[in-house]
Amino acid sequence: MAAAQYRSGVPDNWFVDPVQLGVPGVRRQAPGDDDNALAWQTDALCAQTDPEAFFPEKGGSTRDAKRICSSCDVRGECLDYALENDERFGIWGGLSERERRKLKRHAS
Ligand code: SF4
Question: What is the pTM of this model?
C-alpha cells in the first residue's frame, strides 16, 4: 500500500491516554484498579503497527487497518470506546467513521 494514500499526519492525540497525562477530571488508575476505561489499549494491535494506516486520507484505503483490527483481541472494547466517545476520525474497532455513524443510527 502506497504511503501517499494516507493522511500526511496522524493526529497528535491519537491513542493519548488522558489518565496517564493527568487530565483534570480524569481519575488516575490506582494499583490493582481494573476500572480503567482505557486499559484495553495496552493490548491494541495497532499500537505495534504504523498508525498512518488507521487515519487514511479521504477516499484512501482502509483495508490494511481493517485487516489488523480483524486480528485484534480488543476490537470490541475499541469499538465501544469509539462509539461512547464519538470518535470522528480514523478506524476504530475495525470500522470507519462512516460505518460507525451508520451503526449508531441503526442502534438508536
Ligand atoms: S480494533 Fe483496530 S483500532 Fe482498535 S485497538 Fe485493535 S487494532 Fe487498534
Answer: 0.70
